[in-house]
Amino acid sequence: MSTAVSQLFPQTGATEAEIRRVFERQRDTALRLRTSTAAERSAKIMRLHDAVMARRQEFYDAAYKDFRKPPAEVDLAEILPVISEAKHAKRALKGWMKPHGVWPTSLTLGLKSWIQYEPKGRCLIVSPWNYNVNLSFGPLVSAIAAGNTAILKPSEMTPHLTAVMVRIVKEIFTEDEVAIFEGDAAVSTMLFALPFDHIFFTGSPAIGKVVMAAAAKHLTSITLELGGKSPTIIDETADIKTAARTLMWGKFTNCGQTCIAPDYIYIHPSVKDAFVNECRAVLKECYGETAAEQMNSPNLARVVNTRHTQRLAGLLSDAKQRGAKITIGGEVSEKDCFIQPTFLENIPSDARIQSEEIFGPLLPVMTYTDLDQVIAHINAQPKPLSLYIWSKNERNIERVLKQTSAGGTCINHCVVQYAHGNLPFGGVNNSGLGSAHGIFGFKAFSHERAVIRTRFMMAKTLFPPYTAFKSKLMNIMLKTQ
Question: Is 259 a catalytic residue?
Answer without folding.
Answer: yes
